[in-house]
Design goal:
By secondary structure, the protein is an alpha+beta fold. Helices cover 34% and strands 18% of the residues. Helix 3 (70-84) runs antiparallel to helix 4 (149-160). Bound molecules: 6-diazenyl-5-OXO-L-norleucine (DON).
Length: 578
């Protein structure tokens, strides 16, 4: 376990049950301390944007008002978030996008996840005794995968965009050049991550002038503005070839990193068939591997269809019981079977089959708990052939974009590439760097997710679109590492099963269980009645600060509704009306 994670918890034992309370480290940000930007549901009849930063939302709305489509707005938002949300928005990271295109009524998904560099090796984060070296996969030059964001946004624009590429990057260039006001929440994030942001000279150069007094400070990023100008002019080649690619490769070489010009030049995003399933009468379209999110949301929904959740009641003790058990089976399978499908045969059909879901449901009895140690990832013997941020956009024509992208940890690897303003990801930590050793989200992995050159690390990011009667119902997606999958699951249940509006679906408390460690994690707190019932049933419980942040857009009676999650209080949804 990473040391930082160990520090996070003080465990108080009550009898034989462990009841864990979160220890709040200095600088930790509690969303209840902030005035959320979103005060009420945004409503519009033409289009809607939802992102984790109101300035990026404004950029998206501006593009839609200029006549751009959802793809144009998404490209502009992707670049704008790289400027205004440096903890997660990025051009030095990667992600996924799920699309519904109204012109051919088809669903698409694009995988622009980072790739392991050509010089990576399976044991690159282990010492000679095979022990994981602390922080090596999370901090510094060696922690990065080959970034995919610029190539992904470029590819989406090539296929579906309508406005000029350069015009879509202009708002981001202006925000980087002229600067923008640091919000109280961003200031606290900069304080919380000060150690990481001062660990490398170039990162110091970008961030340290803003410490310690953030009040009304304008955050400018001239190097990033310059990099964005090159990308605006030269397209994807502006990042993957020429001056910027050379700077990345040289900086890597000078500091023990391994990403080369060849890695950058060879990087390609992949258009993949999205996973399509249903929950009752709702069609769910979501991201396939190398995200684990889509497949496990489908698996869990399939199991949950065997229970009368409405009768149990939202977040009742019995509901928490059933959800926790279902989650354990899904995350157990994740640890064994999920990885990059270009390198490993992921048993998608089996994991998403109704028979398997029924089998799991037979093991779940309300009031009883199967300890995680007794739940083993299922063996499928025969082969089958077959600090992250989310944004969603729907446009006038009915095109829908749901995208989650990331640097992995907040502020990624902490490395800014010299003279470029590019903050790099630490996505290599999403590989299983050693069997049985959890990554920073406590997730376990196996051969399916071991490091191999050019392979993509397994992800939990779950951009998803839901349809009712062949019409958009809602889009959902979230940051939050391992907790993304369960946050997206609960957002679907909240809106489908409990008929909540976007604000209620967002505000409802979320629970999480990921098989190992064997504990339910619950946001904020729990009534004594529920707590004691769950403890008596045999659960360990940990009260956590929220780790997820949904960006929901719902369509109802030809009106779009959006609501930025208060958990990251700069989140904001805004629409355009005729
Ligand atoms: O791809 C993944 O699953 C992780 N790299 C996501 C990281 C994340 O959500 C961090 N945000 N809070």
């Amino acid at each position: 376990m990473h040391n930082k994670l160990k520090l996070l918890f003080i465990v108080i034992f009550i009898g034989s049950q462990a009841y864990a309370q979160t220890y709040t480290p200095i600088g930790t940000v509690n969303p209840n301390d902030y005035e959320p930007r979103q005060k009420q549901i945004s409503e519009a009849n033409q289009s809607m944007v939802s992102t984790q930063h109101f300035l990026a939302t404004q950029v998206g709305v501006g593009i839609l008002e200029k006549g751009g489509n959802a793809y144009d707005a998404s490209v502009a938002i992707g670049f704008a978030l790289a400027v205004v949300l440096p903890r997660a928005g990025n051009i030095g990271g990667g992600g996924f996008m799920v699309i519904y295109d109204s012109s051919d009524k088809n669903n698409y998904s694009i995988d622009y996840r980072e790739k392991a560099p050509l010089l990576s090796t399976t044991n690159m984060y282990l010492d000679e005794n095979g022990t994981v070296i602390d922080n090596k996969s999370t901090l510094g030059y060696l922690a990065s995968g080959v970034p995919g964001t610029v190539a992904g946004l470029w590819s989406v624009h090539q296929r579906f965009g309508s406005m000029r590429w350069g015009e879509l990057i202009e708002p981001a260039i202006n925000l980087a050049e002229d600067g923008f006001e640091i919000t109280p929440y961003m200031a606290d994030m900069l304080i919380k991550y000060n150690e990481k942001l001062s660990a490398f000279d170039e990162t110091n150069k970008v961030f340290q002038t803003y410490y310690p007094d953030f009040d009304k400070k304008i955050f400018k990023q001239p190097d990033l503005a310059n990099t964005l100008k090159i990308i605006a002019k030269e397209g994807r080649d502006g990042f993957y070839k020429g001056e910027i690619a050379k700077k990345i490769a040289h900086d890597m070489q000078n500091n023990g990193g391994i990403i080369s010009e060849k890695d950058l030049e060879q990087y390609q995003p992949v258009w993949r068939n999205p996973l399509i399933s249903s929950y009752k009468d709702i069609k769910i379209v979501t991201m396939p591997p190398p995200s684990s999110g889509g497949i496990h949301v489908i698996q869990m929904l399939n199991v949950l269809e065997n229970f009368d959740l409405r009768k149990l009641g939202h977040n009742s003790k019995e509901y928490i019981n059933v959800l926790s058990e279902v989650m354990k089976y899904a995350y157990a399978d994740r640890s064994k079977h999920l990885g990059d499908p270009d390198f490993y045969d992921v048993p998608i059909r089996k994991l998403s089959s109704l028979e398997y879901a029924h089998e799991i449901s037979q093991n779940i009895k309300i009031g009883s708990v199967t300890p995680s140690i007794k739940i083993n990832p299922r063996s499928f013997d025969d082969k089958e052939s077959i600090e992250t941020t989310h944004f969603s956009v729907v446009d006038e024509k009915g095109n829908v974009v749901s995208s989650t992208y990331t640097l992995n940890s907040s502020f990624g690897s902490g490395v800014v590439i010299k003279d470029t303003g590019i903050l790099m990801n630490n996505e290599m930590d999403d590989f299983s760097i050693s069997p049985g050793v959890p990554n920073q989200y406590g997730l376990l992995g196996a051969k399916a997710n071991e490091i191999t050159p050019q392979k993509r690390p397994l992800s939990s990011m779950t951009p998803t679109i839901a349809f009712k009667n062949n019409d958009l119902f809602f889009t959902t997606g979230s940051p939050g590492g391992a907790k993304i999958i369960t946050a997206v699951l609960q957002s679907i249940l909240n809106m489908v099963e409990f008929e909540m509006d976007v604000a209620e679906a967002n505000n409802a408390k979320r629970i999480h269980h990921q098989w190992q460690p064997d504990k339910i994690q619950i946001e904020f707190d729990l009534s004594d009645d529920k707590k004691n019932w769950l403890l008596n049933a045999g659960y360990n419980i940990e009260i956590i600060e929220p780790a997820t942040n949904l960006q929901l857009i719902m369509k109802k009676n030809n009106t779009y509704y959006g609501y930025g999650d208060f958990r990251r209080p700069d989140s904001f949804a805004l629409g355009v009306s005729k």
